[in-house]
Amino acid sequence: MTLNSADPAFADRLRDVLDPKAFREVSPHYLDEPRGTWSGHAGLVVAPADVAAVSAVMKAAHEARVPVVPYGGGTGLVGGQIMPDGPAPLLLSLERMTAIRTADPVENVMVAEAGAILSDIHAAAEKVDRLFPLSLAAKGSARIGGNLATNAGGVNVLRYGNARDLCLGLEVVLADGRVLNGLSRLRKDNTGYDLRNLMIGSEGTLGVITAAALKLSPRPVGTAVAYAAVPDPAAGLALLSLARDRVGEGVSAFELISGQSLAFLEEKLPQLRRPFDPAPEWMVLIELGLPAGLEPQAAMESIIEEAWERELVADAVLAQNETQAEQFWEVREQIPEANRLIGSVSSHDISLPLSNLPAFIDRASQMVMGMGPFRINCFGHLGDGNLHYNVFPPQGGDLAEWRSHTGEVKRAVHDLVHEMEGSVSAEHGIGRLKTGDLERYGDPVKLEMMRAIKAAFDPHGILNPGAVLKG
Amino acid sequence: MTLNSADPAFADRLRDVLDPKAFREVSPHYLDEPRGTWSGHAGLVVAPADVAAVSAVMKAAHEARVPVVPYGGGTGLVGGQIMPDGPAPLLLSLERMTAIRTADPVENVMVAEAGAILSDIHAAAEKVDRLFPLSLAAKGSARIGGNLATNAGGVNVLRYGNARDLCLGLEVVLADGRVLNGLSRLRKDNTGYDLRNLMIGSEGTLGVITAAALKLSPRPVGTAVAYAAVPDPAAGLALLSLARDRVGEGVSAFELISGQSLAFLEEKLPQLRRPFDPAPEWMVLIELGLPAGLEPQAAMESIIEEAWERELVADAVLAQNETQAEQFWEVREQIPEANRLIGSVSSHDISLPLSNLPAFIDRASQMVMGMGPFRINCFGHLGDGNLHYNVFPPQGGDLAEWRSHTGEVKRAVHDLVHEMEGSVSAEHGIGRLKTGDLERYGDPVKLEMMRAIKAAFDPHGILNPGAVLKG
């Protein structure tokens, strides 16, 4: 299908349906991706103020066959928000639609516009003594519409699920401007096909999310945070089982961190207080969030004690207060930034069936080390089976030189993941970075049905062309 | 589209691809629905033994344009499994695909074939000290494929979600026999559009579910069950908030039951031990399931005590042992059977935003009583906002006579639900009973997109024709 650039004539056409404030400068921050790996282009950036304006923009783009890239906080890691070539797209930013319309502690429901920033949503939930549990490193700039479009994960998936599990309803503008009114606050609604979940995770290729009804949770009454050094990832999983046997859903987060993670933090962000010095080879960050009647600090101590006796834990530090708990989390959350500053040869956001996970880490290490003297930073959401398995040049090595290995390393890691029944995109999505992987590893029948759905929802192929499905 | 009956010539064709045991007698139990309201027909009933055989059947049906009704346990309440007219369909029963392939307590995953009976799945989970939380009155005959196809709800949705939330992956045979291999055991997998959730709740109109990977949960260490008489449904909701503030996710179930429910049980199933005599106008059944370290009985007592002080509870009985807890649940689970024995003028499976729920009950009662001397049995899953709002003839009234009011009552109740932002099918689905409601109350854009998806997945319209979407 031939698409046309968002040229000045098209911009003029939009002036009839948009207020002047909607027209934004095409500045670099719309076009660069967070890791600085590559840049996109755009003919025009607009930020409509409401759903009617989004609908008018899409209608015009549909008629003029102009590609549209829906844009949230720009924090995506797989290039879903970056169109590198082809006709210059219209970049449709949700940045002006940031209202949090309601936050109801009785219904445990919040209704927010797509451009609301994740940390603002956290604050609004806290104001009514509730929790919106989706949390990730980019929470200060990520927008909820993008979080939903990519089915974001983060550190609380273990307990509360991913973005998909936290959404009750969506308002979505379709490719041709029609508005799907699905902003339901209902917990149960079995009236027809599940279009909400079809939109969630479709990365802006089936529609533009403009508002969402979100599930809120009770805030745990007491929390405890600890770092535990574990002999290996299998011990980490055993520790997780132990913790869950003790406190059930009370395990809010369970993150695996490698010694290499701390070494990178020491090198690039030395001001951060690291939990262990020297760093153990493997450690886990545990957060408990418990109801009234249970002492979280005591529960954590008792879990660690039993783990110690079973030789699942070699050393541990418990946060003694709120500030220290925040410092513990800061260490975890700054790992991606340290990685960025080091510069990776290849990064992998992968998941595995839990019982295959320890064997994967062993096999992958041997394999990657066999390919060169790489440094591996393996960390992530252990309880979800989701690893960020990132490969870096040797100490003092020149990244530019080692980048020639990127393709080979990526392919080998992804082949192994696939062989071990895992996924090559656990939480970041396909974007434009992994369309080849989806074709290589995805079920062919699934791909056929995805193409059929795309054709039905966006017959001219204007929505985020080249993302998820190759053009 | 013209479809052809599953006639003897088509049966002969299937003999090439199916073993002789797959051919079943077209007996009445395949054709009657649980409430006995109407019957279906079928030209042929087959029960394939594996996914390859299901695929071969669908391929043949697709080529011959023969309608196919996928059939699980036959417990659906909206006629999704009953085709009353048109060309005689092939009824495709999953009754021979009952294997539970794995139940892994480390991964917390079970893989089961679609024909596995829900209570067998419960037992298999219990064997590995885990919980599969989906539970409903028909658990002894409902099959998991049907539970997923209808996105079944039940009594534990409050804590664990509905069928959708308990499924990690699906194997599905499409209309033309292609097999969608999505039997993933992964907790996180963002590789492409969410076809799993599109299939879940599509009621056999987009594909035939043949196997599923299911999420297991830790078994709560201690449970407590109580009945509390509450002054009104609003007090019930306040009691739920109180309980959740105390024990968080530990509230496993919270069911509203009306005095009318107990009166019907007394009339039709007098051998059941009722919790209160005389029956209060409203009561709730509460189940707590708590981790180690918390005494569930003490937690329940303390919740009830505070509720008593706040005048949210007028009377309460706590189950003193396992047997009594089962008796308490038996009362709840036999309500649909008592209703069936009385015979309703109109039954409604509805949901409302929680904050509209008490007002709905008041307004609906006034409205229905204004239409005649009906008896109303309102009960259901209060925490989910899901009511079973059922209308019966007056004491001693002749059902046949009062059934002339069915259309009028149903319409009035559904109109009110819609006005109050609720759903006219909370957990039972659309089936064939509510296709008119879906057209009347559903978002027109949603309906358009549903039709587009149906056309893409089943171009000849052979899969469960007339269910969900009118032909």
TrEMBL record, chains A, B:
Gene3D superfamilies: 3.30.465.10, 3.30.70.2190, 3.30.70.2740, Uridine Diphospho-n-acetylenolpyruvylglucosamine Reductase, domain 2, Vanillyl-alcohol Oxidase, Chain A, domain 4. Its cofactor is FAD. Residues 38-219 form the FAD-binding PCMH-type domain. One of its GO terms (biological process) is respiratory electron transport chain. One of its GO terms (molecular function) is catalytic activity. Pfam families: FAD-oxidase_C, FAD_binding_4. The keyword Secreted does not apply. The keyword Kinase does not apply. Keywords: FAD, Flavoprotein. SUPFAM superfamilies: FAD-binding/transporter-associated domain-like (SSF56176), FAD-linked oxidases, C-terminal domain (SSF55103). It comes from the Bacteria. Coiled coil: none annotated. PROSITE patterns: FAD_PCMH. Belongs to the FAD-binding oxidoreductase/transferase type 4 family. This is 2-hydroxyacid dehydrogenase.
